[in-house]
Design brief:
The complex is a heterodimer of chains A (296) and B (202). Chain A is α+β, with helices and mostly antiparallel strands and 296 residues long. Chain A contains eleven helices and ten strands. In chain A, strands 1-4 form a two-stranded antiparallel sheet. The longest helix of chain B is centred in the N-terminal third of the chain and has 30 residues. With 202 residues, chain B is mainly α. The chains are: A alpha+beta (296), B mainly alpha (202).
Chain lengths: 296, 202
């Protein structure tokens, strides 16, 4: 009979707690939209933040409330997005695919001003007189962007420059925000003007077809070329040759020196207006410092 | 019941018998969540809350249920039952009342259900503050205070560890010991240094 007391006590305790919890779960139930769980299940779950939401869960909440567009997710495939749109009974609004490009072509072509022996980290190196490179605007080459990229899309090349793999890049903006020299921008590669051009769909998907200015030096041409053989010297040859008036050299004196699109300084640099650019490549031919390049 | 007693409990629980570094309880969360200071502190707060509350509840269970029925040998299983129920309940309440707090605690609160530090406190309390099946005077207050102090000791160890690991992230360490192996080495060195407190006798 002695065994009955512990059995009854523990049994009663368990039953009491069970009933208590069951009651509490009814009383404190939080109503959630069942669609939310489904959307979260469909989203990639990498919490990259490229959509502007606080992780995939936050993004799902803002889709549900209509604050965010479904297509703002850079990672999900089109089919997944269609599924989400169907779930919500909405139509999918397409946003152009963008990738990060680096506005610097210096790398090992630019000499060091002094021997930097600190932490192998761009942000840390930048604190020391703006980094060890002769050009204070250019890439420091310690590969912060490679480390921050959640998709492994950025690799440091032997030239001391990061190379962005356009197929892997999801335009999550992490490298753009991290780079202490502000060298990355996101550029649309499925641009509305492209289909009218002779560039085939395949080359676009390989990430080709984008023309960009690979320099961020705001120095005068003389100082730029002294530090770096491939810097933009603002010679305006590209401006003269462009058939669609898409490329302009911005003077240091004009009020346009901050590009509102990417919040970046652009004075003393050639800047391409991607709403007009047809990627014809005439500016590439004429650029004698080889600053204007086509994305590889 | 005197101030000296409380001071003794405080110093023993936080330093001399630090729950992680001397008693080696709750090690999984200590290694897993000490990578950055902010989540480490969130976890510590959650642990402190649960140790305090479970000290209160298990004292009542022990004093008014297990002792009268002579079932003190069932303390482990009944304490686990109580703590698990309590944590589940708190999770529900927090989720209802304060969603930001719920998101702040996130995964940590359910994790604490199976954290042995919490059960450790409950068992320690009944070991220390019950003599021959009888509560010593002020044992309830001692238990609650010990619950808080063990939580503080946990927070101290987490703070030290996360601070060290955050700085180590920036160091050039051999690949073979990067991350977890290094964390174990550091934990053992910290534990050795906490052994230095062992000379104190109150």
């Amino acid at each position: 009979m002695d065994i009955l007391i512990p059995i009854l006590t523990l049994g009663a305790l368990g039953l009491l707690f069970g009933i208590g919890l069951a009651f509490a779960s009814k009383k404190f139930a939080v109503k959630t939209d069942p669609r939310l769980e489904k959307i979260v299940g469909l989203l990639p779950g990498s919490n990259c933040g490229a959509c502007g939401g606080a992780g995939c869960f936050g993004f799902a909440e803002s889709i549900l409330s209509g604050k965010a567009k479904i297509d703002a997710c850079r990672i999900s495939s089109d089919e997944i997005k269609e599924q989400i749109a169907e779930l919500l009974g909405r139509k999918l609004q397409k946003i152009a695919k963008t990738v990060a490009i680096l506005h610097c072509n210096g790398g090992i072509k630019v000499k060091d001003r002094f021997l930097y022996q600190g932490m192998k980290d761009c942000v840390a190196a930048n604190l020391v007189l703006g980094g060890q490179k002769e050009c204070v605007w250019g890439c420091l080459g310690f590969g912060d962007c490679e480390r921050v990229c959640p998709f492994g899309a950025i690799k440091m090349s032997g030239e001391g420059l990061p190379i962005v793999d356009a197929n892997k890049c999801k335009a999550c903006n992490k490298c753009v925000l991290l780079c202490p020299k502000n060298l990355f921008t996101l550029v649309a590669i499925t641009h509305p003007v492209y289909p009218a051009l002779s560039i085939s769909k395949e080359t676009l998907q390989e990430g080709k077809g984008g023309v960009y200015v690979a320099c961020s030096s705001h120095d005068l041409g003389k100082d730029t070329i002294a530090a770096c053989p491939v810097g933009c010297i603002a010679c305006r040859k590209c401006e003269q040759v462009c058939p669609v008036d898409a490329i302009h050299v911005i003077d240091a004196s004009t009020s346009l020196s901050i590009n509102p699109e990417c919040n970046r300084r652009v004075d003393n640099l050639a800047v391409i207006d991607y709403n007009k650019c047809t990627s014809c490549g005439k500016c590439i031919e004429v650029c004698h410092t080889k600053t204007i390049r086509r994305r590889e | 019941m005197s101030v000296a007693q409380f001071l003794t409990i405080f110093i023993s629980a936080v330093f001399i018998y630090n729950v992680i570094l001397s008693r080696f309880l709750g090690l999984c969360s200590f290694v897993a969540i000490s990578r950055e200071t902010k989540p480490a502190m969130a976890m510590s707060l959650a642990v402190m809350f649960v140790t305090t509350m479970s000290s209160i509840i298990t004292w009542f269970i022990y004093r008014f249920l297990l002792i009268p029925f002579g079932l003190t040998y069932l303390r482990t299983i009944s304490f686990i039952l109580v703590i698990a129920t309590f944590v589940q309940f708190v999770e529900m309440v927090i989720r209802k009342i304060s969603p930001p707090l719920y998101r702040f605690f996130g995964i940590y609160l359910p994790l604490i259900t199976v954290n042995c530090a919490v059960l450790g406190v409950a068992v320690l309390n009944v070991d220390m503050f019950f003599i021959n099946g009888k509560a010593i005077p002020g044992s309830f207050y001692y238990s609650v205070f010990q619950g808080i102090c063990v939580g503080l000791g946990y927070a101290l160890a987490m703070l030290l560890m996360s601070g060290i690991r955050e700085r180590l992230d920036l160091c050039d360490v051999p690949k073979a010991v990067k991350d977890f192996p290094l964390a174990f080495i550091i934990a053992s060195i910290m534990s050795l240094s906490f052994l230095g407190f062992n000379g104190f006798k109150f």
